Amino acid sequence: MNGDMEAVKQAERDFHDVHYDTPLLPIEVEEIRRTLLQPCYADGIHRRTDNLAAFHEILAGQWKDKVVLDYVCGNGSWAVYFALLGAKEVFGFDISENAIRRACVRVEAQGLADKVHLEVKDATKLDYMDDFFEIAIGHGVLHHVIKYPGIAENLYRVMKPGSKAYFFEGLADFPLYRLWWKIKGEVPEGDVPIFAKDIRETFSMFSRIEIIGDDFLFSIKRLLWKENMGRVRKTILRAAKKLDEILFSICPPLRRWGCFSYIILTK
Predict the structure, then answer these.
(1) CB 94 within 8 A of CB 12
(2) DSSP 8-state symbol, 219
């Protein structure tokens, strides 16, 4: 990798190290379900909780009794969650040293050090064994790493034949999201806009690539959602969600322009 890309990687590492500096609370399964896997117009604590809930419906606990890769694990919250819900072992990595340091403290405190293994690693230089993981899961991380050469080859190598990698991601195929990226421009946290074609090209070595779009009219939640919303906002969001369900059932191809997507890669 050239020096310029290494500088980009270091800048991203520095940005995230600064933002991972607060103590971590223990992970409680019911609390995660109540706050992160609920509609954003109900008890969800941010506007993406609908997408997290839909993503976990697709996952349907498939990590149980498996060796799991938490891909770009951040502070390890999902790695702990998977372990508490029956994963055989969970391995996670992140480029941020602060994130991994704090995550390991929490893993120890929750008595999961024999099941959850978190390390500082580079997505372009994974040193796990070949054909090792039975499932990989990433929560909104591809827009950080897809710009780096070799990330797909590294993921493919460490996955077992026939295994699947699951990601949820906001794709820029959605017209307003594409416009938002043009306005936003380059950002210090290393985010980049990605399109469905980028997913298909980058991960072309996988035998099957599925991209399930979501949130068309319901993308209005980017403007309407806020903490402690009133009844009017909640009603509008519920209606937009219902209209999306109707539109997708009438015209399934409309999903390709959803502002969120669920990505399944099969080795």
Answers:
(1) no
(2) G
Residue 18 has pLDDT above 70, yes or no: no
pTM here? 0.92
In angstroms, the Cα distances linking 12 to 121, 238, 240 are 13, 36, 35
Give me the amino acid identity at 155.
L
Tell me the β-bridge partners of 167.
138, 263
Residue with tokens 């971590």: 24
- Note whether 90 and 76 are within 8 A (CB): no
Running DSSP on this structure, what letter comes out for residue 129?
A: P
Q: For residue 190, give the nearest of 151, 142, 122 by alpha carbon.
A: 142
The sign one gets for the Cα dihedral 218, 220, 223, 228 is: negative
Contact in structure between 69 and 133 (CB atoms under 8 Å): yes
pLDDT in tens, 122-158: 999 999 999 999 999 999 999 989 999 999 999 999 9
Strand bridging mode 260-266 / 67-70: unpaired
CB–CB of 161/89 below 8 Å? no
Q: Which of 211, 183, 85, 194 is nearest to 144 (CA)?
A: 194
Residue 10 has pLDDT above 90, yes or no: no
Q: pLDDT tens digit string along 46-77?
A: 999 999 999 999 999 999 999 999 999 999 99
Contacts of 234 (CB under 8 A, 6+ apart): 41, 42
Which helix (H) or strand (E) segment is 29 a member of?
helix 29-35
Buried b (16+ CB within 10 A) or exposed e, 217-235: bbbbbeebbeeebeeebbe
> Residue 5: how many CB atoms within 10 A of its CB?
13
Strands 133-139 and 116-120: unpaired
